[in-house]
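At this stage, I wrote out one protein, both as residues and as discrete backbone shape codes, and that material follows here.
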Amino acid sequence: KQWYHRRVREKLQLEEILRILRIDADVHTVPLPGQLTAHDITEAERYSTLNQLMREHSTHTVVTFLYLPRPPLNDADNSAYLENLCRLSEGLPPCLLVSGLSQVARREIWSMGWCELEK
């Protein structure tokens, strides 16, 4: 029950931020599949599952805002990072990968995973 109240609060915060920014958008909460919280799933599987979920729920989306995952610390992991970004955004409407937001804005705007502007 506590998770439900947190999601409702996050949705209201996101709607308020969008209103302040004068962005006309609908906010929809989509439950994440259980396999995304499993510890034995690879990053590639996690990004592919998120991509599939977003494609299923974004048929009328004009633009999708995604939080840009933190780049790897090790340069040897750069190729895998870019491949995962491709997995995340493949087949979606135009995506804006967002980074550099303040901690407050990042927590309030992007905590739900993505924000979509409907046509």
The first helix runs from residue 2 to 20. The chain has four helices and three strands. The two ends are 33 Å apart (CA to CA).
